[in-house]
Structure formats: C-alpha cells, structure tokens
Design brief:
The chain has helices at residues 11-23, 47-50, 53-58, 96-109, 153-159, 192-204, 217-231, 234-237, 281-289, 297-306, 308-313, 318-323; strands at residues 2-5, 29-33, 38-41, 62-65, 73-75, 79-87, 114-116, 121-124, 127-137, 140-148, 167-169, 211-212, 244-252, 255-264, 267-273. It has an 8-stranded mixed beta sheet with strand order 7-8-9-10-6-2-1-12, with helices on both faces. It has a 4-stranded antiparallel beta sheet with strand order 11-13-14-15, with helices on one face. With 326 residues, the chain is α+β, with helices and mostly antiparallel strands. The relative contact order is 0.14. It starts with a strand and ends with a helix. A hairpin with a 2-residue loop joins strand 8 (121-124) and strand 9. The protein has 2 domains: 2-237, 2-Layer Sandwich (BirA Bifunctional Protein, domain 2); 244-323, Enolase-like, domain 1 (2-Layer Sandwich), CATH 3.30.390.50. Helix 1 packs across helix 7.
C-alpha cells in the first residue's frame, strides 16, 4: 500500500492526482489532502443549480468537478479529504463500508462516537461529518470522502444555498443534510495538521505492508497536465453539466418577463420569453444576443459589455442584470 500526503491545496490538482493514481498506477493507494476554499460537484451534477453564484463570486470560491458521482460539497482549509484506491477482482462486492470502515475506526480511536448512515455518510450525534463517493475504472476502485474538522459551516451553508426551481434537468441532485464539525466532539482540540497526521498514522498502521512515498517530480508533471487538460477547463467544470432549462422572471421597466434558457453542454442553445416587443424592443435584442453564449456569469457579462448597441443604450447595470440569468 502506497501512502501519500499531498502538499497541494489546489482542488483541481488534487482531483487530477486521484485520476492519475487510479488510471496510471497499479498500486493500492491511501491518499490524504486538504483543499483551499472550494465547491466540488459530482460528475453528473448541474454545477450552477447547486451553488449560490453571487456568494461564490463575491468570496472567490474555486469551483471543481470530480470523476465520482454523489452530491456537492464545500471544502476549506479545515476539511480533510481521504482517498482509497484498490484493485478489485469482484466489482459486484464493492461497498462503501469496506473502504470507510478504517476511517470510522480511526475516528472512534480518537474517542468519537461515529456511525455509518444509509447514504454512505459518517455521522456524529445524527449529523454528517463525512460524505463519500466512488468511481470504478476497469478493475480499480476509487473511494474518497471528506472529514469536517473545523470547517466554516456558515460559509458552507451560504455557498450551497440555491433555488433549484429555476433549473429543470435530470441531473443528480444533492441531498442537504445537517452537518457538524468533528472538533465539537474532541476532548483535546486538534489543528487540521495534527488531525491529518493522527488519522494518517492510524490508517497506515492497519496495513501489513505500506510505504510512505510522496508524489514525485515526474508524477507532478503528469498530474499538472491532467489538471490543465481536464480539471481546470470550462468544458469539464461547466460544460459537463447535463442538458437543462433555466427559468426566471425578470422585471423590466414596463413588464415582468418570463425567461427560459435552453442549455446544452454549458451553451445557451435557445432563448424564450413572453416579452412585449413593442414596449421593450431594446431588451428583446439583449435576449437575442444570449444565443450560443456560454451560460457562465463572466462570459455573459463580457458579451453584453462589449456589444456597442447595448452599452450605448445604458439599459441596466450589466453585472446585476446578469445575476438574473442564474
């Protein structure tokens, strides 16, 4: 068993590390890492329907998509991530408890009353401290999860607060659960670094044969290539979202307009409104400009700001108007 503590706090690099170790290596792996403030969505989720975009932009929270399924998670520097990568001959026998049991035992050894829940989570006092997800590649399995040590739960709540009624799709929806921090139940407080080292040593102590081997310089180059070609790209983070409809009501000076955007691979492919063109002809032009534009706040703002007709009309505050499109 190769055991690794990542020195990077870049979520996209760490997600690329998991994919590299899963697909390139044939070793069994135990990996832990900490990410800077970020939101990580599951592979099959609609990113925009899961987040509070205004809050995310205002707080410069990084966005990422992982290769496993499951729901959306908020992470910061007081959240620990763990990953197990195993070779499996019988994929039908794979279950979450097999991989999360060592984590459960390690937490219990810290004096914590931790238990499994039916949704692949770990709970303390009926509240979630860890969510887990899985991805299978040929005969190898990645099982990974989060551990809330002392995360900012107010930011977590605000960052993941959304209005799902605006988004109509068949994507996997996150199930919001009551969460808590592990630090609230520790007799002796631990920093994230102390917690990481304690958990790491507890886990590797269960393996008969293990080697602590950091990511090499050559591996780092390969992982960076995976990160840049996939995990950092707009096509993966936004464009991988399933096809969806976005609906909202926008108040114009003379009318409240129902707007419907049809989004495919992150691109606005259709725009429908019930606008009164005789009263709001200039706004009708604005909606037409949206066709074939990325359904992304920055991209739409740039299109509207750089359109000479729209900028000359001074119809609205473009930045604020764009928020109505999410």
């Amino acid at each position: 068993m190769r055991c690794i503590i990542s020195t990077s706090t870049d979520p996209q690099f760490n997600l690329a590390t998991e994919e590299y170790l899963l697909k390139i290596s044939d070793e069994e792996i135990f990996l832990v890492y900490i990410n800077e403030p970020c939101i990580v969505v599951g592979k099959h989720q609609n990113l925009l329907s899961e987040i509070n975009l205004r809050y995310v932009i205002g707080n410069k929270i990084k966005l990422a998509r992982r290769i496993s399924g499951g729901g959306t998670v908020y992470q910061d520097l007081n959240n620990l991530n763990f990953s197990f990568i195993h070779n499996c001959t019988n994929l039908e026998q794979i279950d979450f408890r097999k991989f999360t049991s060592p984590i459960l035992v390690a937490l219990q050894n810290m004096g914590l009353d931790v238990m499994f829940s039916g949704r692949n989570d770990l709970l303390i006092d009926g509240k979630k401290i860890s969510g887990n997800a899985m991805h299978i590649f040929k005969t190898r399995v990645l099982s990974h999860g989060t551990l809330l040590l002392n995360a900012d739960l107010s930011k977590l709540s605000l960052a993941l607060k959304n209005d799902p009624q605006k988004y109509i799709d068949k994507s996997i929806k996150s199930v919001r659960s009551k969460v808590t921090n592990i630090s609230n139940y520790l007799e002796n407080p631990k920093s994230i670094e102390e917690f990481k080292q304690t958990l790491f040593q507890s886990i590797i102590g269960k393996f008969e044969n293990y080697n602590i081997t950091p990511i090499t310089e050559q591996e780092t180059k390969s992982i960076n290539q995976i990160s840049k070609s996939k995990f950092e790209t707009w096509e993966w983070i936004y464009g991988y979202s399933p096809k969806y409809l976005f609906r909202n009501n926008i108040n114009l000076p003379n009318q409240s307009v129902m707007l419907e955007l049809e989004i495919e691979k992150g691109i606005i492919k259709g725009v429908k409104t019930d606008i009164n063109t005789s009263q709001n002809a200039d706004y009708q032009y604005v909606f037409e400009v949206l066709l074939n534009v990325k359904h992304e706040y920055k991209a739409i703002c740039e299109i509207l700001k750089n359109d000479p007709k729209i900028s000359s009309l001074s119809l609205f505050n473009i930045a604020e108007f764009c928020m109505f499109l999410f």
